[in-house]
Amino acid sequence: MAHTCTHDTSAAPDAVWRIWSQPESWHEWNPDVEFVKLDGPFAAGTTGTMRTKRGGTHPILLEEVNDGRSFQLGTAAMPGTRFHFRCEIAPSGGGSRISQSISMSGPMGGLFSAMMGKKIAQSFEPILHGLASKAEGAG
């Protein structure tokens, strides 16, 4: 089960994508990220490391990238569970609708999703707001 947060912005989809597809700059607008380092290009199969303010440092994998539209990042943040963060951009009115979802897999995925999924998705609002503000300023 995916838990999702959406946010509308006046920024064009390509402005949002330019920022979202540069993980090394996420700390500039994402209040939870200290740093992201990818071991290659922003493409499916690329691995890296992310350090968050609350969760520590974790290996990450870009599981899927649909250039200009969406990507999915995976990490094993908790024992027996893999977190999948799906980030999407869609044209909406004169701007974009951006969304971030979390789903969980693995032996403990269902339990952790039921316990924490909604709360984690609610924490995406300031992240999406930061992304929108950065994209609106870049446009």
Describe the structure.
The chain is of the alpha+beta class and 139 residues long. It has a single domain (3-138), classed as Alpha-D-Glucose-1,6-Bisphosphate, Chain A, domain 4 (2-Layer Sandwich). The chain is 27% helix and 45% strand. It has 3 helices and 7 strands. It has helices at 13-20, 109-122, 124-138; strands at residues 3-9, 33-38, 47-52, 56-66, 70-78, 81-92, 95-105. It has a 7-stranded antiparallel sheet with strand order 1-7-6-5-4-3-2. β3 and β4 form a beta hairpin. The longest helix has 15 residues, at 124-138. It is globular and about 45 Å long. The termini are far apart. The model has no long low-confidence stretch (mean pLDDT 94).
- Numbering strands along the chain, what is their spatial order in the largest sheet? 1-7-6-5-4-3-2
CATH topology name: Alpha-D-Glucose-1,6-Bisphosphate, Chain A, domain 4
Q: Decide which structural class fits the backbone.
A: alpha+beta
Task: Just name the CATH architecture.
Answer: 2-Layer Sandwich
Biggest β-sheet strands, sense, barrel: 7 strands, antiparallel
Distance between the termini: 34 Å
Low-confidence spans: none
Total DSSP helices: 3
